[in-house]
Amino acid sequence: KGSTKGSTKGSTKGSRGTTDAARPEPEETPRRYVEGGEAAAAEGERSPTRRRTDPPETLQTPSRNPPETVQTSGPADADAADDDDDEAALDKEAGLVIAAGAMLANHLVDNIAHLYTANVCEVVLGVPFVPAALGVPGEPGPGCAGCNVLTSFSHAMLPEHWASVFMHLPVLPLDFVPPQFARSRLRVKSEPGASAVAAHLVALGSSPNEGGGVVALARWTPAAGDPCVAVAAALAVLGDAGVDALEAREIEALSDAAFVPVAGGAATEAPRRLWLRAPARLAPLAFELPSSLTEHAGFLRRLGLRDELTPADAAAALRVAARKANGRALGPNELRAAVAALRHAVDFEASSSVEVVAQRRRSATPVPDSFGVLTPSTALFHAWGAPRSLLTRLDRRKLRLAHDLVPAGSCAAAGIRAVHDAVFERRVVDGSDGPDGGPDGGPDGGPD
């Protein structure tokens, strides 16, 4: 029995080794699956099994095939799938954490009469376990409606002051507001301070890259109401506190923050770039203060609000628009507004002196060119009064013309030169036409 078994095993192993040695190497063709169970396949005891291979960079176990012969999904696809899985896991974890905080906050608020002692309040007032809402009102966060952070009672704000602080301080939902008798011990803020409201408006009017301005309005939901109403509530708090309650740096930051909704909520502007009265045709380059905020004009004047748009303001608006466009062609509405702003900027009064007019003509006011790009007026020419035969032969690569919508009077007032004054025509006659080498048989060197 022993000899038979040994001979059988030996012959089997030997034959398999011979078979493996004689077997040709597989071609290095990409394939998605590799076969396993080699010994079982050779002995015929069971059919080959298939297993899915991992990407080479994550494959930890050795493989019979080289890594380069295994076709897997690309690294970008794998990373995207991993990111989606991680984000879903984080959302689920955040929902569980906020739900746990909601259970604790509900228990504390419902049983505050039995748990209320000075020691208990001192212990829990600074612990961030209460779900609250922070930031632009958007889709409800995980766990409970609208809550996306955990905060402490001493750091949170009551829901009636939401419009004044939601970008700076977390706001408690109604379900987690402690009773009146416990708020003092828990140090819940009864009213927001002027500095907190100013920080809220600065955050609301921050750059789009930071989530403020038009990005904040894009996330605004109809359930939150009119954004102008929310801004008016914050301005009312600052107006009651007075400018003296703010530091100079806070006033400067408020002046530059684009927290005022304009154009029906389609854009935002800073107070120093708003006017009480501005022509509607200048939008979107210059905006008038919304009517719902005119009652706060007194405080906004301290932040740079001006009463009426002057020619100098219109020219400044054109320079700001040129800087923002950075060589981009204006859209139809922007082009119309730029032409209107130019006409307003060069609207000289009859009492203007010759020196003032000359100074304004020398200033490089941005003017739309024929392609709609705001260009300094000193680099442009206008085509008014030029014959069509001349315009058709102009080299537009060397001469930039003002846009056709810019009137001739505005071109002249802005210091734009006429193309017929800057371009001259010269007729060149081929010398080989005449019999003597000159034009029409005339002598060489005649006038062109």
Automatic annotation (TrEMBL):
It comes from the Eukaryota. One of its GO terms (molecular function) is Hsp70 protein binding. Residues 58-74 have a biased composition (Polar residues). Residues 434-448 have a biased composition (Gly residues). Residues 1-19 have a biased composition (Low complexity). This is Uncharacterized protein. Residues 1-86, 428-448 are annotated as: Disordered. Residues 22-35, 43-55 have a biased composition (Basic and acidic residues).
